[in-house]
Amino acid sequence: MISPRSRVLLDRYALASRALSRESGERLATETGQSVEFHDFRPYQPGDELRYVDWKVYARTGRLYTRLYQAERNIAVHIVLDTSPSMALGKKAVFARIVAELLAYVAQRDALSQVHLFSGQHSQPTHGRAQISSAWSFIEDAPPLKGAEPRPTVALKDFALSSSFPAGTGLAIIISDLFDEAPLQPALVALKARGLDASFLQLLSADDLEPQEGQLELIDAETNVKLLVGPEEVRAYRQTVQRFMERSRAAILRAGFRHALLKVNNEDEADLERQAFAALIRAGILQKR
Fold first, then answer.
1. What is the domain-level CATH number for residue 88?
2. 100 has a pLDDT exceeding 50
3. In terms of CB atoms within 10 Å, which of 171, 252, 254, 270 comes out highest?
4. What is the C-alpha separation between 197 and 80, in angstroms, rounded?
5. Does 157 lie in the same domain as 122?
6. What does the pLDDT look like over 186-240, one tens digit per residue?
7. What is the CB neighbour count within 10 angstroms for residue 273?
8. Cβ(263)–Cβ(204) below 8 Å
9. Do 115 and 210 share a domain, yes or no?
10. SS (H, E, C) 35-81
């Protein structure tokens, strides 16, 4: 669960997305026949229209707050979390859950949000901070996958084709190491066809990127196949991982989606929350309101 300090800081940020910036925000919709609903407060900022200031709150507290409204549109944020065996390496699974919880907290403010697992399980759609605890519980209770499937390409394609959410404008945030021998292209095409804006957060640990040279036993976390390797094989592995990262990033960018590499350091779990928050800001996934 996210610390109170991080929640205060998160209130200053919003998700960066073309879909959300076009379709929702901190202003009243004016389209003919478009209804709106009140969904939150925030401290008054210079430039806010005075008609949106809540004077009753000011009379009680002596502080200025702006009422925020959101148009009733078919907009949603989908947080897609990889729980496959390869995520267990180098604290990636813990880091991924923290990232998902941070994003879920921010998403609740601006849109209907839902968490999806690679297994096909998904949370109930929620909206508003009062429901954030249910989203966090779903993330924290997500069981790790034990088999080799589904790999990212299959899981993401199944997610895009799923009927668990309606088609329409929205943002999908994929949190995964993307380890898969199969090309990512079919999943990218499916996401595009579903009309989703997508941000890929590729999580890689120090063990993924820089394994120590020496006589090692390499174990494939997805298939459990074991292989004895020496320094030359380790160097070849590093080159293969680098090419894989470049190939994944290029395919995602060609599809018109966002890609960010988040490196997970071997730090104490208590510091992973700070690390995750900083990484999301550096990657441009979170932006100041």
1. 3.40.50
2. yes
3. 171
4. 13
5. yes
6. 999 999 988 888 999 999 988 787 766 554 555 555 556 655 566 677 677 778 8
7. 19
8. yes
9. yes
10. CEEEEEEEECCCCCCHHHECHHHHHHHCCCEEEEEEECCCCEEEEEE
Q: Which of 11-25, 57-71, 117-131 has the lowest mean pLDDT?
A: 11-25
Cis peptide before 150 (omega within 30 of 0): yes
- Domain range holding 97? 76-288
| Same-domain check for residues 157 and 183 | yes
Same-domain pairing of 257 and 188: yes
123: which DSSP letter?
A: P
CA 217 – CA 108 distance, rounded (Å): 44
Estimate the share of the chain in helix, then strand, then coil, as percent rounded to the nearest 5.
40, 25, 35
CA-to-CA distance for 150 and 186, rounded, in angstroms? 14
Final residue in a domain of this structure, among 37, 71, 105 = 71
In terms of DSSP bridges, do strands 170-176 and 65-71 run parallel, antiparallel, or are they unpaired? Answer: unpaired
Bridging pattern class, strands 196-205 and 258-264: parallel
Count: domains in the chain: 2
Rounded CA-CA distance 246/242 in Å is 6
- CA-wise closest residue to 75 among 23, 6, 146, 5: 23
Backbone angles phi, psi at 166, to 5 degrees: -70, 150
d(CA 135, CA 180): 28
Nearest residue to 109 via CA among 162, 38, 166: 38
Where is 235: in which H helix or E strand? helix 231-254
Question: Residue 173 forms beta bridges with which residues?
Answer: 79, 199
DSSP three-state, residue 178: coil
Question: Are the beta carbons of 161 and 190 closer than 8 angstroms?
Answer: yes
pLDDT at 253: 96
Domain boundary among 71, 98, 124: 71
The reported pTM is 0.77
